[in-house]
Structure formats: structure tokens, C-alpha cells
Specification:
Blueprint (H helix, E strand, L loop, with lengths): L7 E11 L3 E4 L2 E12 L4 E14 L5 E11 L4 E10 L3 H8 L3 E3 L5 E8 L12 E10 L2 E9 L1
Antiparallel strand pairs: 1-3, 1-10, 2-3, 3-4, 4-5, 5-6, 6-8, 7-9, 8-9, 9-10
């Protein structure tokens, strides 16, 4: 049987800083993104306010991501990035995150599905791509993703 392959192209590294989570309900926390940077071969941008993540805590300890980021490119264009995703957590990882410890992307499954919207003609191609993100670092007030475009 011929199994198809999925080709990707690295789009950017997304490095964001965030405040300690604020508890909204027993199953929901809000995380304010304070700043960040998107760096890639086709564009670079700062993460600006307002930006954040509205995480749903599942009964099994895992997290469902609902993030929204405002980006301002180095040449002044505006891009809206939003993504859902999942973080597979156990009691030990949740305790380490709560203690402010950084967690390597190899220690947990943290994946996202970023989407982009922009009115910029220069970056309009972002409106029509499908992406996946994989975290390399998570916790201690930082999240670093590698974002890949699916070809």
C-alpha cells in the first residue's frame, strides 16, 4: 500500500512571554500574553496587546488552547493569529508549570493549529495557508513554538 506523506515548510519561530494564569472558573484560566516575537524567512513581527490564551482545563489534566495574538510586522502591517491546540499534562507537569518551571517540548505533547488573517496585500498569502505548531519550550513565563506551513 502506498502511504501518502505530508510535506511541511518551516514558517517561523513564535516566542511569547506571558503573565501567571488568572483563574476564571475551575475549568478555565486566562493567560495574558505580554509580548513576543515571530521570526521567519518570509516575515517578522512583534506580538502586541491585546493578546492572550483562554485555556480550558480538562478533567484528565490536559489543556485545550484557545489563543489569539495581534502581530505587527517589522514593516508596519497588522496580522491576527488565532489557534486552538492541546497540551498533554499530568499531575507532575501541572505542578512544575504552577511552580514556574520551564518544560521542554520533548516532555509533553503541545501542538497547535495556527490561522492567520490580514488585510495586507503583502501578507495576504497568510490568509490561505494551513499550519501546525510544535512547542519547544513551555512554562516559566515563556512559550516557544516552531510553526510549519502544510504544503
Amino acid at each position: 500500500m502506498n502511504v501518502p506523506t505530508l510535506e511541511t515548510r518551516w514558517l517561523m519561530k513564535l516566542d511569547i512571554s506571558f503573565d501567571a494564569p488568572a483563574v476564571a472558573t475551575p475549568n478555565r484560566v486566562v493567560i495574558n500574553v505580554t509580548d513576543g516575537r515571530a521570526e521567519g524567512p518570509r516575515f517578522s513581527a512583534d506580538v502586541i496587546a491585546p493578546s492572550g490564551d483562554w485555556v480550558r482545563l480538562q478533567d484528565d489534566g490536559n489543556w485545550k488552547i484557545d489563543a489569539r495574538l495581534a502581530l505587527r510586522t517589522d514593516d508596519g502591517e497588522s496580522i491576527f493569529c488565532y489557534y486552538s491546540g492541546v497540551v498533554v499534562m499530568d499531575d507532575g507537569l501541572n505542578a512544575r508549570f504552577g511552580a514556574g518551571e520551564a518544560i521542554s517540548g520533548t516532555e509533553t505533547y503541545l501542538r497547535s493549529a495556527p490561522n492567520f488573517e490580514t488585510g495586507s496585500e503583502k501578507y495576504a498569502w497568510l490568509n490561505d495557508i494551513v499550519c501546525v505548531g510544535r512547542a519547544s519550550t513551555f512554562g516559566a513565563g515563556k512559550l516557544v513554538y516552531d510553526i510549519f506551513e502544510i504544503l
